[in-house]
Amino acid sequence: MSETTSANEEKKPPLNGRRALPPNNSNDEENEVPEVDPFGLIPRGFNPKDYLRVVDIYMFKDPQEINKQQHHTDKYYNPRLIVRRGQPFQIQIDFNRPYRPETDQFWLEYLMGRYPQQNKGTYIPVPVGNVLKPGEWGAKITHRENNSIRLSIMPSATCIIGKFRLYVAVWTPFAILRTRRNPATDTYILFNPWCQQDAVYLDDEKEREEYVLNDVGIVFHGNMEEIKSRSWSYGQFEENILDACLFLMDKAELELSGRGNPIKICRVASAVINSRDDNGVIAGSWNNSYDAGVAPSAWTGSVDILLEYYSSKQPVRYGQCWVFAGVFNTFLRCLGIPARLITNYSSAHDNNANLRLDFFLDDEGKVDTKLTKDSVWNYHCWNEAWMTRPDLPVGFGGWQVVDGTPQETSDGMYRCGPASVQAIKHGHVCFQFDAPFVYAEVNSDIVYSRMEKNGTQVIEKIDTAHIGQLIVTKEVGGDGMMEITEEYKFREGSDEERLALETAVMYGVKKQSTRDTTYQPQTDIDMDFQVQKAVLGNDFKVTITFRNRSRNSYTATTYLSGNIVFYTGVAKSEFKKQSFSAKLEPSSSNSFDVVIKSSEYMSDLLEQASFHFFVTARINETGKILAMQKATLLEIPSLRIKTKGELVAGKEMAVIVEFTNPLKQTLENVTLRLEGPGVLRTIKKEFRSIPMNSTLTWEVKCTPIRPGLRKLIASLNCDALRHVYGELNVQIRKP
């Protein structure tokens, strides 16, 4: 006896003097609902079977039936009814006898969580009336035949989203009779971008198809000069993904009553997508060693990551910015919030938010790595989610920046957003959440300075145009790139841009003045350099060009530093350093070549094959310093994908992946991944080694489920070579 009582006591939540009910933040937990709910003493002759009784409920929940078709939820690989709020859906109830409206009274009850309450929106009684009001809970009978009735049910346009339990309650003089708990009648209610009263309403059908219903996307990476793209499978409709996304809100302990609000959902999700401080979905790693996990570059989509987290409840290793953004996008689209993945090229990570990135040079003009704390990411990915912002002044709704990559803390946790894109553009960074950080990511200046022996700081160069030069996303309805820089900032140097900056400074973005330092740029000599395009494993050259516009002869002591860098701009190692003296004749241009051999960089190469070159030149006659930096990428070989056999839904076909090793070395412990939403689940295969110049061929048999245009995505990964991708569009025909 004592053992059972102690077990029961453990289950009770701890009491809290401030609230009568424990927190209700799990969509999965349930309460017991009585089938017979008496009003008082029940007379002895009472027999529930004498009254109207529900025999069966038909949910019209198959993908080809009316509800999922009208609610744009037919793609979800889920047997339950899935509808969107603010839009009516149909169910049919079969009784034990014909329904008589004069005497019979019944209603529906939707419940969520363990402590359903009407004022929290977790217990919703829906009476049956004669008319449906737009955007408010209600039900009306549309059809009666024999013992059956057909109901049209309208969920409120602001109701909480998640999985509800459905009961039908019948009134009798002595008790309320309810249907048994039946998981088959559970109903998922999601956000509705098609409904004007919903906070996520989007008025363009093509945009809704892209930002809510498209289950594959494109990640743009590389850098400004060499934009690269790869496909990412969002897979928001795949089996168990909807439940996994609802579980993320339970994990983040978001009160059920707050789950109708897209602002709250985005805010808690941006924290739970990363594992810092809450054991969230993905553990980030930027150090090029991925033991006991998957290298960020190996993932081809979000499904594996979300399903692994849903089953293990432990952070999935490892991710970098595009992985966080890819999974976040799946989460948002799955719940019905329009979302897109954004890439910002030359993204500032300004660790003290003073709108300037400080690069400190030593006496020779080299960057002092001990003093320099800020960094420029070649690119950074985040997300935009579409919603109204009733918490802000009019005009700041629409696209909001949300970022799941852990960079800086916000209100004590690693999270970022939602921040209004419109507010960032106009410098109104006082509006929540985290607008100053995003403003700095796209607007900082790079300041090169060095300390004189007497302690004064001399600014050698200010680069106002390098940061946030290009902000892009995938175009609507195609795989091309759409530039959205103008959504974030006015044209560089325009009056509006100055005004936005002054506004941001007024609202508390720290802009360090350069008045306490001396700044006299060298005006009569220009320096630039170009890096030759090169394929991984080959030699290439860097050409440095000086233009002397004066009538004087000068000599320039020039220093080139080549670093292998993470895409976050953090250097791993300097693989090339070369100094030379350049003679600059009056009114002329001179070019100098520096050759980079593959043997110098191959041993230390990081996965994105990304280099950072830093060139500084000291004009000996004037003591002035010229400084310039550029990131560059090597061409990485790609995978080839082909298909064999008929491409028909329900018929077996074959997918063939080929790869030729271009390096002057054998690749060892190679992992291939292949996936395609609606065609095949992710498959992995390990290969012990691929000798140089040899070709690997991998054939996979699969049976596509869904007709239509589908995408196959493959990745190859090993220690010597990462970020190798291939993709293929396939048109799957109806059988």
From TrEMBL:
Provide the residue span(s) of the region labelled Disordered.
1-38
* Note describing how the cofactor binds: Binds 1 Ca(2+) ion per subunit.
Which cofactor(s) are needed, names only? Answer: Ca(2+)
Keyword Ubl conjugation belongs to the record = no
Q: Where in the cell is it found?
A: Cytoplasm; Secreted
Give the reactions, separated by semicolons, that this protein catalyses: L-glutaminyl-[protein] + L-lysyl-[protein] = [protein]-L-lysyl-N(6)-5-L-glutamyl-[protein] + NH4(+)
Pfam families reported in the protein's UniProt record: Transglut_C (PF00927), Transglut_core (PF01841), Transglut_N (PF00868)
Database matches in InterPro entries: Ig-like_fold, Ig_E-set, Papain-like_cys_pep_sf, Transglutaminase, Transglutaminase-like, Transglutaminase-like_sf, Transglutaminase_animal, Transglutaminase_AS
Outline the extent of the Transglutaminase-like domain.
Answer: 313-406
Keywords for this entry?
Acetylation, Acyltransferase, Blood coagulation, Calcium, Cytoplasm, Hemostasis, Metal-binding, Secreted, Transferase, Zymogen
Q: Where does Ca(2+) bind?
A: 443, 445, 492, 497
- KW Secreted (keyword) present: yes
Q: Which sites are catalytic?
A: 321, 380, 403
Write the Enzyme Commission number(s) for this entry: 2.3.2.13
Q: Output a single Gene Ontology CC term carried by this record.
A: extracellular region
Q: Which GO terms describe its biological process?
A: blood coagulation, fibrin clot formation
Please name the GO terms that the record assigns under molecular function. Answer: metal ion binding; protein-glutamine gamma-glutamyltransferase activity
Q: Which family does it belong to?
A: Belongs to the transglutaminase superfamily. Transglutaminase family.
Q: How does it assemble?
A: Tetramer of two A chains (F13A1) and two B (F13B) chains.
As for what it does, the entry says:
Factor XIII is activated by thrombin and calcium ion to a transglutaminase that catalyzes the formation of gamma-glutamyl-epsilon-lysine cross-links between fibrin chains, thus stabilizing the fibrin clot. Also cross-link alpha-2-plasmin inhibitor, or fibronectin, to the alpha chains of fibrin.
What is this protein's record name?
Coagulation factor XIII A chain
What organism is listed for this UniProt entry?
A: Grallaria varia
